[in-house]
Amino acid sequence: MKLFAIFGDPVSHSRSPLMHNCVFKNLNYPACYTRVHLKDGSKLRDTFFALGLSGANITVPHKEAAYNACDEIRGFAKTVGVVNTIINENGKLIGYNTDADGFMYSIEEFGDIKNILVIGAGGTSKALSSRFKQDGIVVDVLNRSEGRLEEFKSIVDNTYTWDSLVIKKYDLVVNTTSAGLSDENYPCPLNMLENILDNTSYVADAIYGKLTPFLKLASEKGLTYKDGSDMLLGQGVLANELFVNGELKKEDIRMYMKKSFEL
Ligand code: NDP
Q1: pTM (predicted TM-score)
Q2: Nearest 5°: CA angle at 149, between 101 and 45?
Q3: Residue 170 shares a structural domain with residue 244
Q4: Which residues are catalytic?
């Protein structure tokens, strides 16, 4: 029996255990998935081995710590320095990032997106912004504070703090901050957010399972919006494929993972 886990702080809200266990149980795969509340990201590697894990997902705020915990980084995670999936390959920790491709899957229904404003400058923002740029999309990033924007300057087209934002038209605005996750905060001051939303067509939040104040405002303005559920599904399917090392069919994984959303 293989054991998998999600590490985060907070982690109690995470649907990942339900999603992965639903796949393992229904497809008779001998594995179990649990959650670990980890406060100190530097303890990730030791905790992973102490629990005898075969693999893990990593959520807020440890994705950059996860990158540092790995012996080898593969695929898109190399470009962004952010890891959300770890596989134990013969005692070596291999890091991947499945968030960005999961998000691309989730916005397919919005059609051709040419420019995006990303709010937030954490690990998720970095992964999504870099992935958008790979597709030739114009990307601006808005963050509460200046510090984290520094490394975005070479990745995206424009970076703004609340003080320097220039309002423009965007096809899509994405909230990647944790504002609204376990509080009722907006990701930026309300009057600024009103202005931003009055100039966009589509709105997406990385947070899932609740109507955040950000999405509520988008809904009140009659905009087309979605929460992070499809991103969660997209990243989860890709992570599960890595966990089972190709032993299960992708369509089956997707079907049972989606079913877990009804539980
Ligand atoms: P990080 O901790 O790396 O980054 C958090 C960012 O949010 C920082 O830019 C920070 O700004 C900003 N922020 C935090 N609180 C506030 C606030 N009250 N007002 C404005 N800005 C704020 O987090 P992650 O990038 O790992 O995750 C971000 C969110 O995305 C989480 O809510 C997570 O649950 C969600 N997520 C969802 C996924 C899905 O599958 N649906 C996948 C991945 C993430 P500053 O720099 O100023 O501190």
Answers
A1: 0.89
A2: 60
A3: no
A4: 63
